[in-house]
């Protein structure tokens, strides 16, 4: 993973299955809105399902794509979890607030059942995003008076529109799997499933090795040592993110209390993945770049900036946000990361906080 690139899907899936955590998958929106609202699974949902099947063939893992949101949520709430299940949620941003509340309850119940038994359920939420042209604060001739004024105009629009109490149920956001997007259909899934059954012994052995790695990581996860100075380092990063110039201080920058436990867990997975039995500051830095960008709440308009309480000029704040919006627009296209500005804030904080020696 680069400094400002999204984590890859396969590593995120491997970590999430081991930790029993849900995550988001960011797809650039090249599909029409009416197609996204269709009850049939879209190509990206089928792509995710196929990738999961390739990573965990014959592993007793069930993959479900939610078709009708309300009916699927009701079904999940009443279905007893017998095997490990991965639920793909198409277009999470389109969920209504009642459906979001229902999904939070289902995810909470799934977490409780995962702690009690080997079976469990995680969710992969699909986020469709597009790089919108940043608005300008300059007033032009012929502008409609009904348009929002500069004080309420959003210069840094968010790509994740769900409420915070649902967003924090997801662990982090990742890039989509690198597969042929146009070749996926319902028939291709059955064809690939048939091909998987005819795999060679070498491929079967390789997949068995991958599964054994995941089991070993889960078994040894608690054995990875995390020192008190490392925990303090994570807390320092959290405090600096909450008070950063670009984070929305009224919501603590989006850094909530469970962030400490989540970053420690992710740091343990990263350290174990790299062959270490202890968490080093470098593992914490990488975990922070994975975890925090999705959760951060940035200042998106001048009225959200706390410096106005101390005499800052709203017009100057608008100019600053407008310039940041232009930079974000250019860099998002380069890195294919809608959370570029959030990752830049995290990197800035990591550069300021002194790691333990």
TrEMBL record:
Amino acid composition bias (Basic and acidic residues), ranges on this chain: 199-213
Highest taxon above the source species: Eukaryota
Gene behind the chain: MTC2_2
UniProt-recorded name of the protein: Maintenance of telomere capping protein 2
Ranges where the record places region Disordered: 192-213
């Amino acid at each position: 993973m680069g400094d400002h690139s999204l984590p890859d899907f396969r590593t995120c899936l491997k970590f999430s299955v081991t930790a029993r955590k849900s995550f988001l998958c960011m797809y650039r929106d090249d599909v029409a809105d009416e197609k996204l609202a269709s009850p049939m699974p879209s190509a990206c949902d089928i792509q995710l399902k196929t990738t999961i099947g390739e990573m965990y063939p014959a592993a007793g893992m069930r993959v479900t794509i939610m078709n009708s949101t309300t009916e699927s949520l009701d079904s999940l709430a009443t279905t007893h979890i017998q095997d490990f299940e991965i639920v793909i949620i198409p277009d999470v941003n389109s969920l209504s607030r009642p459906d979001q509340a229902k999904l939070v309850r289902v995810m909470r119940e799934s977490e409780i059942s995962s702690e009690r038994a080997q079976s469990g359920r995680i969710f992969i939420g699909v986020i469709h995003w597009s790089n919108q042209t940043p608005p300008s604060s300059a007033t032009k001739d012929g502008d409609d008076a009904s348009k929002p004024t500069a004080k309420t105009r959003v210069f840094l629009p968010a790509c994740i529109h769900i409420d915070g109490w649902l967003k924090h149920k997801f662990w982090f956001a990742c890039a989509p799997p690198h597969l042929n997007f146009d070749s996926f259909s319902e028939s291709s899934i059955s064809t690939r499933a048939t091909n998987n059954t005819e795999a060679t012994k070498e491929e079967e052995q390789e997949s068995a090795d991958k599964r054994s790695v995941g089991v070993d990581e889960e078994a040894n996860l608690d054995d990875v040592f995390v020192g008190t100075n490392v925990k303090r380092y994570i807390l320092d990063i959290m405090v600096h993110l909450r008070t950063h110039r670009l984070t929305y201080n009224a919501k603590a920058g989006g850094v909530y209390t469970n962030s400490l436990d989540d970053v420690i867990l992710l740091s343990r997975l990263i350290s174990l993945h790299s062959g270490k039995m202890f968490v080093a500051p470098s593992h914490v830095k990488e975990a922070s770049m994975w975890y925090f960008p999705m959760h951060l709440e940035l200042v998106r308009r001048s009225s959200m900036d706390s410096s106005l309480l101390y005499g800052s000029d709203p017009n100057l704040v608008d100019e600053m946000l407008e310039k940041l919006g232009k930079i974000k627009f250019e860099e998002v296209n380069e890195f294919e990361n809608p959370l570029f500005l959030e990752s830049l804030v995290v990197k800035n904080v990591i550069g300021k906080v002194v790691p333990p020696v």
